[in-house]
Amino acid sequence: MAKPTFIPLTQYEEFPVEEMRGRTRAFHEQLSKRRTVRDFSDRPVPRDIIEKCLLSAGTAPSGANQQPWHFAVVTDGTIKKKIREAAEEEERAFYSGRAPDAWLEALSHLGTDEHKPFLEKAPYLIVVFAQNYGVKPDGGTYKHYYVTESVGLATGLLIAAVHNAGLVSLTHTPSPMNFLSEVLQRPSHERAFLILVVGYPADEVKVPKIEKKTLEDIATFY
Fold first, then answer.
1. Those residues with Cβ within 8 angstroms of residue 194's Cβ, 6 or more apart along the chain or in another chain
2. What is the DSSP letter of 215?
3. Would the pTM of this model clear 0.90, i.e. be above it?
4. How far apart are CA 107 and CA 110, in angstroms?
5. Nearest CA-CA partner of 150 in 219, 64, 50, 72
6. Tens digit of pLDDT for each residue in 99-143?
7. Contact status, residue 214 vs residue 59, Cβ threshold 8 Å
8. Exposed e or buried b per residue across 138-174, where buried means at least 16 C-beta atoms within 10 angstroms of its C-beta
9. Which CATH fold would you assign to the domain 35-205?
10. What are the residue boundaries of the structural domains of the chain, listed by start?
């Protein structure tokens, strides 16, 4: 077993308490403006902006620091069309009988249906893949730990980074998502986690009227 290597924590910066309050207040105010949208503009977004968002996502903590994620970034119109067609096929099955009535009722206030034009119109589809195990250069494999939790953390940071950049996003999770591995020709040790649709909002876009839970609803201090 290799001996661990440690380095000084030079990146950490402590702030005065009042500055901490100001920074957390400003951060919350910024994130509270984030909204999921389903109507996108086709305006292009510079690739370097998306690259930095992905690098931010890659800073997420992960089990044993194995970073069991891969981001497949789709801009090609032909591939986006294939993804849309396959996703809408699954969504038609979902809305026409696969989903229980309670689930459809829970979704009703969002106005969603089987039509997913954003999968073609938005400039970027970032398909997040979870790697069930790692592959060594010689072809051998090794176990990954806390894969779902790790990939969820990275996805959350990606969503925040996209919002911070001044873009909007949509988390899309057609079920099942096996077709994404086929369309994108991903290796067998990866499974699709979700599609993050990224770009600018369409002009005069409207979003559902929703509210977030209060602190009392989401947290308990002991």
1. 127, 128, 155, 171, 172, 173, 177
2. H
3. yes
4. 6
5. 64
6. 778 877 888 777 778 889 999 999 999 999 999 999 999 999 999
7. no
8. eeeeeebeebeebbbbbbebbbbbbbebebbbbebeb
9. NADH Oxidase (3.40.109)
10. 35-205
